[in-house]
Amino acid sequence: MFRELTPAVRVLLLANCAVFGVMLLLPQLDLDGFALWSLVGDGAPDTPSFEPWQLVTYAFLHEGWLHLLTNMWALYMFGPGCERILGSQRFWIYYFVCVVGAGLVQLVVTGYVRPTPGATIGASGGIFGLLLLFGLARPHDRIMLLVPPIPMPVWVFVTLYGVLELTLGVTGSQQGVAHFAHLGGMAAGYLLILFWRWQRRRTPPRY
């Protein structure tokens, strides 16, 4: 199973699992400075503040087994297909644009729209960008959900998931989940796809 993974997805899976292993084995190691901290401080002198590198490093931190396994399972399911569509080089660009885009949206929401101190962690922003890409590239592929256990086209799954995230984010009915970061990852991915399409149309054919 592991041999069937594409190169970039394999590296991402190993990196996320390795960081999580370090967090478990070395709990005394302070990695708080690598989480994405809100622009709104909570006044505590020992609380880290926002730093630019956090827009990337937060995506390699997870708060528990369920958080990690959920994101890594989605990466395993959709990542290889996306990497085959884009190629490894563009996959890396796409993934981290989604991660950074998700982080920027989260900073805006927690800093200005709904001022909220605290940190954001997890690879979900990048994962949601991959979901969008997979849904656009292979909309009629069918996937089997676990809950409820019914098959559905990928485009339906991605659309419903996006609407659910928007609803939960606007209503604030599920605290502790960065719904707008998920949407930010999808939005950043979509903008990059549009840019690449525009770039391709402007590039004259070579003979």
Tell me how many strands there are. Answer: 4
Global Rg:
18 Å
**Rounded mean pLDDT score:** 88
The domain count comes to: 1
| Main structural class | mainly alpha
Textual characterization of the structure:
This protein has seven helices and four strands, in the order H-E-H-H-H-E-H-E-E-H-H. The protein is mainly alpha-helical and 207 residues long. It has a single domain, classed as Rhomboid-like fold. The protein is globular and about 55 Å long.
Write the layout of secondary structure elements.
Layout: H1 7-25, E1 36-37, H2 54-57, H3 65-86, H4 88-113, E2 119-120, H5 124-137, E3 142-144, E4 151-153, H6 154-171, H7 179-202
Antiparallel strand pairs: 1-2, 3-4
Helix pairs in contact: 1-3, 3-4, 3-5, 4-5, 4-7, 5-6, 5-7, 6-7
Features:
207 residues, mainly alpha, Rhomboid-like fold, two-stranded antiparallel ribbon
Q: How would you sum up this structure in a few lines?
A:
About 60% of the residues lie in helices and about 5% in strands.
